[in-house]
Fold this sequence. Notes:
The chain is α/β, with parallel strands linked by helices. The protein has 11 helices and 10 strands. It has helices at 30-45, 67-70, 75-81, 108-115, 142-150, 152-161, 167-172, 185-198, 201-216, 219-232, 237-247; strands at residues 6-11, 14-19, 51-55, 60-62, 97-101, 104-106, 118-122, 126-128, 164-166, 178-180. The strands form 2 sheets. A 6-stranded mixed beta sheet has the order 1-2-3-5-7-10, with helices on both faces. It starts with 5 loop residues before the first strand and ends in a 10-residue tail after the last helix. The structure holds hexanoyl-coenzyme A. The site of hexanoyl-coenzyme A (HXC) has 21 residues, from helix 2, strand 6 and helix 4.
Amino acid sequence: MAYETILAETRGKVGLITLNRPTALNAINSGLTRDVLEALKLYDADPAIGCIVITGSEKAFAAGADIKEMQSRSYVDNYLDDFFAEWDAMQRVRKPIIAAVAGYALGGGCELAMACDFIIAAETAKFGQPEITLGVMPGMGGSQRLTRFVGKSKAMDMCLTGRMMDAAEAERSGLVSRVVPAGELIEEALKAATKIADFSLPAVMMNKEAVNRSYELTLQEGLRFERRVFHSMFALEDQKEGMSAFAEKRKPTFKNR
Ligand code: HXC
């Protein structure tokens, strides 16, 4: 598959997507949107892939939606195209997606990282929702997902002042799962992704689905969903293998990887 704005390569069982518009700090334009969503769809459908990593450059994961491309759009254009709604397709990706963030993750870049399943940040990462400085607001999930990650007070602060959050604050606030030295970002993200890809794929996908349900359901409904899925997992050969391997003091060999 030929892409113009990303590099897509496989590292073992991991699909690695590198945003690649260096002259615009990986700003999200229509081409990058098309390329990322296509690569995600192909990796999700590829039985040889168990986990996906999205990363950018040392300077920028992505500095936001492409301001120059969108500046002349009208309300009617946005409404008729349902501008940015195509990113909803990310929620249909059933395999895990890790964001590996170095440098700027601003506006749509921060929102893209938050749409992944978890974020590993380099010490150089800077997160922000600076849309207010452009006379607008987040449009790809920032006001909703950021609030769920870091709580109302900090989300308000970020959206209303447009300030950036460094990696240490992002980790403290629960926005990122871990912070690693910049030189080790890709290696650490690939290590985590490979670890995930070596587990039972149906078990991985069911874990992802259950955690995501916690955003949508009441606690009682979520607990019921979790229990039903947990029960069903005993129909997996990989459950028998995983538990037998533990009892026999050996490493499991999962069939559905
Ligand atoms: C288009 C962008 C861009 C963007 C940077 N560039 N961000 N182009 N859209 N979001 C371009 C610059 O115009 C410049 O191009 C080149 O990338 C390098 O950027 P510089 O500004 O020269 O770099 P630097 O001085 O290091 O500053 C880095 C920066 C700054 C602090 C990240 O670029 C910046 O503030 N960018 C905009 C951040 C932002 O406001 N993001 C939110 C966008 S709105 P030239 O051609 O001059 O070299 C948004 C809405 C989301 O995301 C809602 C729906 C998704």
